[in-house]
């Protein structure tokens, strides 16, 4: 089995999500949880961006021992110096330096020629290498860059000492099959690439970040960059929980594995959501409130008889304690209703059960979700609903 490294950038790209601002204590809390669940690399921030970012990278670098701690730096001396200062206490430090390589970015943003970008990347990776061994180089907007230019610049930074090459789809523009082919082309045509990690960093502008990351893994990528709940710039980044659970479920198909203990997923997802104030949509894969909720009578009946009829992942796999999460609503059948009663410790004779079920159905026609309290009220013959 090939190991896929999980590079989490919740504290850097994730924090770039509009409206998100985490304080030092909150960042340390998240970093410790990421380490506990087995994340290989934690990108703790962008040290030159602000004093707050610098301080959080430095403090995270001091407390995290098992995971590598990365700090972002543009391919500039002052950024790299600042990243070094923040990371120097880390047990496993990594400088992650980047420069844009697409024609659009080079012309309008950097106002630099290809030769200048190539040279700057080479010199700055060499400079970063004078501080630490572990250096990641990203070609920003790689997917919209000339592939042959990318192969040239990647070969050059390998020569300068880069140990990970990151290939971002910065604006989330790729389709999975195309992205897979693109990654394979770079792997097949970059001198020295077999000695380094190949990473991808996919944004979710078209909702394809996870699919694109998986296509890249199939093409040979050995590291994926992601965030908890998929938060990040604009529509966000590849969602860590989706990637990790897919890799776990499709382990044999893809012949890969990760170091992640997935039973931490529910906890980290809830933590990040509550600290960032970014709510998780109810139907979000893996961590949404409805991800394990079976509403229709047919589904509920199936799950009660045999979980695998409608469940491909057990709630326990992501750390949810409750075995079954049945939502009672108008589509629920008698079996599910009876089961909920049992879970509440209520056993009824068949006639009472029929009567209670009829009342429940009348209520469910008026109220979207019938709660435990409603069910209690039904069996106790009280006025059972407040909000209709
Ligand atoms: O999206 C991107 O290209 C980035 C780089 C800095 C890796 O976040
Ligand atoms: Zn990004």
How does this model look, in words?
The structure is a single chain. The chain is α/β, with parallel strands linked by helices. It has 15 helices and twelve strands. The protein has an eight-stranded parallel beta barrel with strand order 2-3-4-5-6-7-8-9, surrounded by eight helices. Strands 1-10 form a two-stranded parallel sheet. The longest helix has 17 residues. It is elongated, with a radius of gyration of 25 Å. The C terminus is likely disordered. The site of zinc ion has 6 residues, from loops.
Low confidence ranges: 382-388
* Strand portion: 5-15%
- Mean pLDDT reading: 93
**Rounded to an integer, what's the Rg over CA atoms?**
25 Å
What is the helix/strand order? EEHEHEHEHHEHEHEHEHHEHEHEHHH
How many strands appear in the DSSP assignment? 12
Within the largest sheet, what's the order of strands?
2-3-4-5-6-7-8-9
Biggest β-sheet description: 8 strands, parallel, barrel
Pathway: Amino-acid biosynthesis; L-leucine biosynthesis; L-leucine from 3-methyl-2-oxobutanoate: step 1/4
Organism: Hypnocyclicus thermotrophus
Protein name: 2-isopropylmalate synthase
GO molecular function, one term: acetyl-CoA C-acetyltransferase activity
